[in-house]
Design brief:
Elements lengths: L2 H5 L6 E2 L3 E9 L3 E8 L4 E8 L7 H15 L9 E7 L2 E7 L3 E3 H8 L4 H20 L2 E2 L8 E4 L4 E3 L6 E2 L19 H5 L5 H17 L9 H10 L14 H10 L11 H15 L19 H4 L9 H24 L2 H23 L7 E2 L8 H11 L2 E7 L9 E5 L5 E2 L4 E7 L4 E4 L7 H10 L3 E2 L4 E3 L8 E7 L7 E2 L4 E4 L3 E7 L11 H10 L3 E9 L9 E4 L13 E7 L4 E3 L8 H10 L3 E3 L2 H4 L6 E7 L5 E3 L3 E8 L3
Parallel strand pairs: 13-16, 18-23, 19-23, 24-26, 28-31
Antiparallel strand pairs: 1-2, 2-3, 3-4, 4-6, 5-6, 7-9, 8-11, 9-10, 12-15, 14-16, 17-22, 20-21, 20-23, 25-26, 27-30, 29-31
Helix pairs in contact: 4-6, 4-9, 6-8, 8-9
């Protein structure tokens, strides 16, 4: 199994709960074909899966379903059977008969051109299958060597009815002309119409290619080839390959007439003429039966099936020898009727073909695959123009990217360097810039929860959070500050926000409240605050405090700027000077109540003996106090009045 197959996400997957994908067989512009196992019926099948970028295109889905319905209507041994069609999530698929082997295109690449017996054998089978389709009212519309399967056991079948339509719906325009340009009938180029006779034209081109080893029309641009189809006559194959019998020359010319009315009306009529030719040449279609393919898909099967050998048994070889003699006689009779110069022209052309064969095959020969060019970094318009120039059909699809600027091409699907048929579709993946994400409320969550949410949105989060002192429990998020990747102003995201991938974020968390250092010594308070990652100012603020002795810490000064304290901030301690003392006023000679009020006004608490509380105020006289007048006491201190009776 190749590295590409190992990277293919479908390998090993169970599709629709039934089909286990084993290996990739082939890839085209619209779909990829895998070999898979039907787990329910325990048999090998071919699973054709539409490319993901086409799964949302209703037109392509319709063609996919049309292929299943068209093939299912045909019961012919030369048509690939379609067993099932379905959808698994975004995967649209067809289940088809699995035929280990190669395509006619691969055989042509190995042998360049085929023998007369090989050509007749393959053409007989193709015409049989198409005759069944035409009888059912189905036009294939994409006849080409890539759609002819040569099985290891000798069976020859035509498949891929993805472009098939009923013969009554014969109009095609614009994007519907998706058949390979090399086999396109003139009426499709000039009028956009197709019927069974359009398939006959494609068969004539394919018959020419099998006999000669190349397509009759060539050009660097698809429109050049299309123009030749519409204006020129296909030459006789014998001009390039003198061993071609006259009868096959005439069959090619009949099938490729410019006017559809002058071609065989359908595949049945052409097949009847081919079988007449078989009898005239004494050639009977035969196949070499090989052992069945192994249970696992063999990626080297292309080199195992007919590696340069013909499709004939030993007995058939003798028949072809006789057929070749008959063909030689026919050509000699014809040559005598032709001008002498025609023979010389044929010889010159043959030598030119032989001389240029090697360069042609490894260059831009017809049927060769072309590599997808690298277009990453371009605009879509420039990329599409380059792909069109190479012969591909580009279409735009977008993908979010944090690395590639919006509007710039990221890649193609299939990727750069992959080799495809001309006309194959190539998805041009254009950057849509970073994806947008809606973030839920983050305040109150743990730091790890917030980091996980932001990481899922592909946001770059600073490793170290900002730490603030707050009543919220330590380790919980207070806010998140987001800075846009394009350099916009930062914004808060604690309450939820909309941001883009590759934006940067700073998480702000709580470390709990500022430690309470009230009543501690300056040294102890400094140690506590330093451990909490605060810097203690060497300067102090001193204040009187009635409850704290001198030298004990009252607290820390308010923050100069609004907001919460954060780690690394500098704090200033407020230190107690002890309680403030006041002078006891003189109260001698005053009545009890007058003295008491004077002490209260001075901030002291007056007391006296309970005996004097029963006396009327006017009968009392204060003789002094304890502490006495002039002594220093703190506010709120008790001062006892010394009283005597006033007899007057």
């Amino acid at each position: 199994m190749t590295t590409n197959q190992q990277a293919d996400p479908l390998i090993g997957r169970l599709v629709d709960g039934r089909y286990r994908v084993r290996a990739r067989i082939a890839r085209g512009g619209m779909a990829t074909v895998y070999v898979a196992t039907d787990m329910r019926l325990e048999r090998r099948i071919a699973l054709k899966v539409m490319h993901a970028h086409l799964s949302d295109d209703s037109a392509f889905q319709s063609r996919f379903i049309q292929e299943a319905r068209a093939a299912a209507r045909l019961a012919d041994p030369h048509v690939v059977n379609v067993f099932d069609q379905g959808q698994d999530g975004e995967l649209a698929y067809l289940v088809m008969e699995y035929l280990p082997g190669i395509t006619l295109r691969e055989l042509l690449r190995e042998q360049k051109r085929l023998t007369v017996a090989q050509t007749i054998t393959i053409m007989d089978a193709i015409l049989s299958g198409l005759a069944a389709a035409h009888k059912a009212g189905i036009v294939h519309r994409d006849v080409k060597p890539e759609n002819v399967l040569l099985a290891e056991d000798g069976r020859i079948k035509i498949g891929d009815f993805g472009l098939a339509r009923a013969t009554t719906a014969n109009t095609a325009t614009g994007a519907q002309l998706l058949g390979t340009i090399a086999y396109l009938a003139p009426e499709l180029v000039t009028r956009g119409t197709a019927d069974a006779r359009s398939d006959i034209y494609a068969l004539g081109i394919m018959l020419y290619e099998m006999l000669v080893g190349e397509q009759p029309y060539q050009g660097e641009q698809p429109m050049q080839i299309a123009f030749q189809h519409a204006t020129e006559q296909v030459p006789r194959p014998s001009v390039r390959n003198p061993s071609v019998p006259e009868q096959l020359d005439e069959l090619v010319l009949w099938a490729t007439e410019k006017s559809p009315d002058e071609r065989p009306v359908d595949a049945r009529e052409m097949l009847e003429r081919l079988r007449d030719i078989e009898r005239e040449l004494g050639v009977t279609p035969v196949v070499t039966t090989t052992s069945p393919g192994s249970a696992e898909y063999d990626s080297g099967a292309v080199t195992k099936i007919l590696p340069g050998a013909s499709l004939m048994t030993a007995d058939a070889t003798a028949e072809v020898g006789q057929a070749s003699d008959n063909a030689t006689l026919l050509r000699r009779r014809t040559a005598r009727r032709r001008a002498r110069g025609a023979f010389l022209l044929t010889l010159v052309l043959l030598l030119a073909v032989l001389a240029g064969g090697v360069g042609w095959w490894f260059g831009s020969g017809p049927g060769s695959l072309i590599a997808v060019p690298g277009v990453a970094g371009m605009t879509y318009e420039a990329a599409a123009a380059e792909l069109v120039a190479e012969g591909f059909a580009p279409h735009r699809t977008e993908r979010n990217s944090t690395e590639v600027e919006a509007g710039t091409v990221i890649d193609t699907e299939p990727g750069e360097g992959e080799r495809l048929d001309k006309g194959a579709e190539v998805a041009v993946i254009v950057s849509a810039g970073p994806a947008e994400h809606t973030i839920p409320e983050l305040t109150g969550r743990t730091e790890q929860e917030v980091r996980d949410i932001l990481a899922e949105a592909n946001v770059q989060v600073a490793e170290e959070p900002e730490k603030y002192f707050d009543k919220l429990d330590a380790g919980h998020v207070l806010n998140v500050r987001v800075t846009p990747r394009d350099g916009g102003d930062p914004f808060a995201c604690g309450g939820g926000c909309t941001l883009h991938e590759a934006d940067s974020a700073l998480v702000q968390i709580s470390v709990g409240p500022v430690p309470d250092v009230t009543g501690k010594s300056v040294g102890d308070a400094t140690n506590v605050l330093t451990d909490a990652e605060l810097v203690v100012n060497e300067e102090r603020i001193e204040q009187f405090h009635n409850d704290l002795d001198e030298g004990l810490v009252i607290g820390i000064a308010d923050r100069e700027q609004e907001g919460l304290w954060k780690t690394g901030d500098t704090v200033t301690l407020i230190v107690s000077k002890g309680p403030q003392l006041f002078e006891v006023p003189g109260v001698e000679g005053l009545t009890r109540d007058e003295a008491a009020q004077k002490l209260r006004d001075a901030g002291f608490e007056p007391t006296w003996s309970a005996v004097w509380g029963a006396f009327p105020n006017d009968f009392t006289e204060v003789t002094g106090s304890d502490p006495g007048e002039g002594e220093m006491r703190r506010k709120g201190a008790e001062v006892r009045l010394l009283i005597r009776s006033n007899p007057f």
